[in-house]
Structure formats: structure tokens, C-alpha cells
Amino acid sequence: MRTSPSRRASVLLAAVSSLSLLTAACGDTDDSADDDGTTNAKNAEASPNAPTKTGLTVSFLPKQVNTPYFTVADDGGERAVEELGSTFKEVGTEQGSDTAGQVSRINALTEEKVDAIAVSALDPDALCDALKRAMAEGVKVVTYDSDTNPGCRYAFVSPASSEDIAVRQLALLGEQIGYKGDIAILSAARTATNQNAWIKSIKRELEDARYQDMRLVDVAYGDDEAKKSYREAEGLLEEHPDLKGIISPTTNGIKAAAKYLSQSQSKGDVKLTGLGAPNDMRPYIEDGTVDAFVLWDPAKLGELAGHAAVALASGQITGREGQMFLAGDMGWFKLGGDGVITLGDPTVFDAGNIDDYDF
Ligand code: RAM
User: Fold this and answer.
1) Is residue 83 part of a domain?
2) Is 323 found in the same domain as 262?
3) Which residues are near ligand 1 (CB < 6 Å)?
4) Is residue 288 located within the same domain as residue 312?
5) Under a CB-based contact definition with an 8 Å cutoff, are residues 173 and 187 in contact?
6) What is the CATH number of the domain that holds 180?
7) How far apart are CA 191 and CA 122, in angstroms?
């Protein structure tokens, strides 16, 4: 049974007054959160050979539940957590922009004393206080898909490097429009960490000489909602009659934009690429609305997050650069700077390979 918060607080106080010197001298793996959240834990030694704990409760909190991308990702997480002998649960809201809903769920999970939370953050800052409280209560926090600030979690399971994800989408669109003309981005929630990191990288990459004739004229936000994303895509075409292409770095956004374009006169003329799920995008590849798009396997992303959460809860990693953990059949993964764990290279899908994938 776990220690109650009040008991833990008094134990901590006693420890601070009488044992702090001893603790420091022993290199104890004290993981209490301090002013900037996780400093103690990240500086702590891991016990790479510690046995994998079983009987843990690991909770996944995606940006949005009941949406294909996160259903597949969280199914992967469930598989990993259950294979490791622990209990998986998923909580979340149906909206793709409900940051307050994420905060209240983090607080509820902390109250419930789950052992670990894997969260895809809708906002880098807004979740921080709740996540820091969770960590102070002994909950191991890992982000996956979309990060919070590094001080508000121990590790981040990233699909690929942000730069890579962004650059590949821009390169695809560049090829498709002959590196010339106005382009726009259709994003998800305005605050989403992953979306904003990719948009920033796309803007930086656009400064490269090869893109000198391409101009980013607008960024729209569809909040990962089908109808809103559809309307935003329509709005982009209405407001920018010379638009040559759209990048939508969200599975829900690109699907809605493809639906709009496939029914519009601009089908095939205005190019669309971004991050899409093969099963969502197959009809639009087949009917010529979309030539190619990018993604990773969300199931593997969730699986890796499940393994990372259990490795944290088992003390095998603490979030420090260079630590390693075994993610089942996926093999060993090494933590990079800021506790970032990278899944691998994204895949480009087109008519030639889309039928090899089923997610
Ligand atoms: C949507 C979400 C998610 C993003 C994918 C590509 O499902 O915005 O965070 O990673 O698209």
C-alpha cells in the first residue's frame, strides 16, 4: 500500500531536517519534486538492473480519446503495460483542445495514486503545476507525442526529431508544387507543443535557399476537430486564391482538408501533405487528392511510452541523458538530452506503399 500524501509530507520534512547530508552523500535516488519540478530525479542515478515492477497502474492521457491516432497509440501502450504485468487505463476528453480537461484528469490520477502517467500535452505550460504535484506525490510522469516543459516530466517519448518531422513535410510539399508559390499550414490546437515545434521548424527551414520562391501566407487551427478543420481548410482556399499547397501536421486536420479538397474544384491543383494515418488517407491517395504524406507507427509510439513509464516506475531510468532501458521486442532505447527518447525515422506514404500499412 502506498503512503498517504500527509504522511509522506511529514516523513519528507523529517528527512530534510535530519538526513539531507546523508542522502546527498549516498547519492540517494530521492525523486521528490523541488522548485523546478524534477531536478532531483533527473540528477539521480538509475538502477538499470532493477527488476521490472509488476502490479503498477499506468494511465495514458492522450490529447483526445476516441480518435484513431490516439486509439492506436494507446492500444500500443496497453499492450506494453499488460505484457509487463501491470494495469493500463486510458482517460481523456473527446475534444482536441481541452487543456483544462487534461489538468483535471492529471489531478484525479494523482488523487488515485496511479504509479505512472503518460500524457500527450495540449499545452506546454498549462499542465505543469498539476504534473509537478503528481511527481511530488511519487507519480512517474512521461510525455509522449506532444511534450510539456522538460521540468514538468521525467522523459518525453518523441516520434522522431521535431526537425525531421517538419523538414520532411516541407520537402514533400516543395516537390509537389515545384518549389514555388503560396502555402499555408492547417494545425490542430493553437497551444499544442508538438504542432508549434513543427511549425517553428517549418518556418526556419523555409529560409533555406531552395524555398526562396515559397511563401507561408497563413496558419489556421482546426483543434483536431473534423468539422472545424474542414471549415478552416475551406477558409484557407477562399482567403488565398493563389494558394498552391497546404501542410497539415495533424492526422485529423489532413483528413478533413483532404475531404474538403476532394470535393472542391481545387482537387489535384492545390497540393496537400502533412501527417496522416494511412487508413484515413487511402481514399484520397487513390482519388488523386493527395500524393504523399508522412507519419510514424502510433502503436509503436504508445508501446514505447508504456515501456518508458514502467522503466521509470521501476527505477531503471530517472530521465537523465545517456540512461538506457529495454522496450521489449523494440530493443534498447537511450535517453537523449532533456530526457527525450526518440522512436525513429518517420515514414513517407504514397500510392506505392500505402497498402502495406493498416492503421
Ligand atoms: C494528431 C494529433 C497528434 C499528432 C498527430 C500527427 O492526431 O495532433 O498530436 O502527433 O496528429
Assistant:
1) yes
2) no
3) 63, 69, 120, 145-146, 188, 194, 224, 250-252, 275
4) no
5) no
6) 3.40.50.2300
7) 6
Q: Domain total for the chain?
A: 2
355 vs 279: CA distance, rounded Å: 9
Among the three residues 256, 277, 295, which one is the final residue of a domain in this structure? 295
Do 47 and 132 sit in the same domain of this protein? Answer: yes
Tell if the pTM clears 0.85, that is, is over it: yes
Which is it for strands 87-90 and 57-61: parallel, antiparallel or unpaired? Answer: parallel
Cα–ligand 1 centroid distance for 144 (angstroms): 11
302, 75 contact by CB (below 8 A)? yes
Question: What is the 251 CA–ligand 1 centroid distance (Å)?
Answer: 6
Domain range for 83 is 41-160+297-346
- What is the per-residue pLDDT across 66-113, written as a single tens digit (0 to 9) for each? 999 999 999 999 999 999 999 999 999 999 999 999 999 999 999 999
pLDDT, tens only, 5-61 = 333 333 333 333 333 333 332 333 334 444 444 666 777 889 999 999 999 999 999
Nearest of 335, 312, 313 to residue 324 by alpha carbon: 335
- Residue 19 located in a structural domain: no
